[in-house]
Amino acid sequence: MNTLIAQLRHRLVVSCQAYPGEPMRSPDTMRRVALAAAHGGAAGIRAQGLADISAIRGAVDLPLIGLWKDGDDDVFITPTLEHALSVARAGAHIVALDGTARPRPDGRTLADTIAAVHQLTGALVMADCSTLAEGIDAAAAGADLVGTTLSGYTAYTSKQPGPDLDLVARLASSVDVPVVAEGRIHTPAHAAQALRAGAWTVVVGTAITHPSTITGWFAAAMASVAPTPTNI
């Protein structure tokens, strides 16, 4: 068992991401968010973008899962081998990439991409999948970890209000690599349920590191019960 993967067993990975136009969109802010997550007990960090990966790697001594979201195609999470190599070279210990059955923009197979990342950088690979078949195929292709990240985010899967715990359980009983529960894990109870379903580790992003969304949850809940204003 790889030491980095062993460090994540039954523990929390915090996804530190902000997007263009958002107030927190800067590598230094994400570095600080990652430091805060580490202070709170996170065992690993997931980060997006080369500058963020580099900044976090220099500040946080935890396993770092890195990715690069790029392009308008269906496959946009670390879509090509060049993206994957750049993510590893920026400092990611684990490269997260699209592990679905959809064609990759550079025409390479998932297996070829994973093998090249292993050979050229020594980094591990996490395959972000959306179905049981994709997870099984990704493990067979050499992925070191398989995640449920894209369940509900492909045209052929349904988006649930919470995490796809059924997929977590089915993957855990079908593959011989660690399963990462990720996607719509909004409460501590969800995270615990994911572990009970068989997840090796759990990635939480929005519910910890995206204040705009969290604020929206509270505002919407309060608006649904607040009395209707009346003229005085």
From TrEMBL:
Its EC number is 5.1.3.9. InterPro entries: Aldolase_TIM (IPR013785), NanE (IPR007260), RibuloseP-bd_barrel (IPR011060). It catalyses: an N-acyl-D-glucosamine 6-phosphate = an N-acyl-D-mannosamine 6-phosphate. Pathway: Amino-sugar metabolism; N-acetylneuraminate degradation; D-fructose 6-phosphate from N-acetylneuraminate: step 3/5. Keywords: Carbohydrate metabolism, Isomerase. GO terms for molecular function: N-acylglucosamine-6-phosphate 2-epimerase activity. Converts N-acetylmannosamine-6-phosphate (ManNAc-6-P) to N-acetylglucosamine-6-phosphate (GlcNAc-6-P). Belongs to the NanE family. HAMAP family: ManNAc6P_epimer. NCBIfam families: PRK01130.1 (NF002231). This is Putative N-acetylmannosamine-6-phosphate 2-epimerase. It comes from Micromonospora parva. The lineage of its organism: Bacteria, Bacillati, Actinomycetota, Actinomycetes, Micromonosporales.
